[in-house]
Structure prediction request, 322 residues.
Amino acid sequence: MERREFIGLPIAVRAQQGERVRRVGILTGVAEGDPERRANLASFFQGLQQLGWIDGRNVQFIIRWGAGDAGRIHKFAVELAGLAPDVILAIGPDDLAELYAATRTIPLVFVLAPDPVGAGFVDSLAHPGGNATGFLSMEYSLAGKWLELLKEVAPEVTRVAVLRDPSITVSIGQFAVIQSVAPSVGVDVWPIDVRYPAEIERAVAAFANSANGGMIVTATAAAAANHELITALAARYRMPTVYFDRGLFAAAGGLISYGPNFRDEFRRAAAYVNRILRGERPADLPVQAPTKYELMINLKTAKALELKIPDKVLARADEVIE
Prediction:
């Protein structure tokens, strides 16, 4: 039997007599020890605390960690739906899909969701219309900027491996954008599927056999779950690589990341959970896009790759690791 874990804020007080304690479920597809996801959740918990929701007094958190295992994610989605909390936070497209299949009545607030309209989770961004609403992970057009960044910092690159998941809408869309931009910057694009670790390692090794290669890692749950492997492969084969997530990749040794500030997304999600707990309906809360994007550059990795990052790129960086 899986261990059931209740995680809340650092400050806990006894539930006051007569006050109903609300329950907030959380489903996340990564491993329990993932530091970036814990930091994101800390922003979520802090946001709720600032809005008056104190663990043990008027709210209880039920969290399940999928650890990159589709079977676990499915099992936990069914379990959370059966527990019938007041609202569930769905983190990522895979978690959202499983929860949406498990319940059409419990309110769902999602984060890191790429295309909720295309996937059928909401009727439209302005009017979700059902039991789900939340925050987009990123726009497809961002993928074009990844390719342009790669060419700016490594102009010798003429071949680009794009790590994608062909079963995920956002990854398909991002790959299509990269393909459309590629001729204008003079590169050939190679798709690499990222569903399984052995598959990733074989494909990257094969791609690295030829010269002038670089990589782009698109937004997928599998890439997040295998971020250590992917970062290690980029270092092993000395390939300049641009990533979609700062905490998982650039902060952990990846060359460059450019994407939304996900901690800000989790803080904003806390505001939606608060509104639902106070009586509003997900159907009436519009889906929102990211508002903060960050460029992170790891100069230690650039030095190891013998790359000179142009001053104009450094000037745009929100954070530089030296």
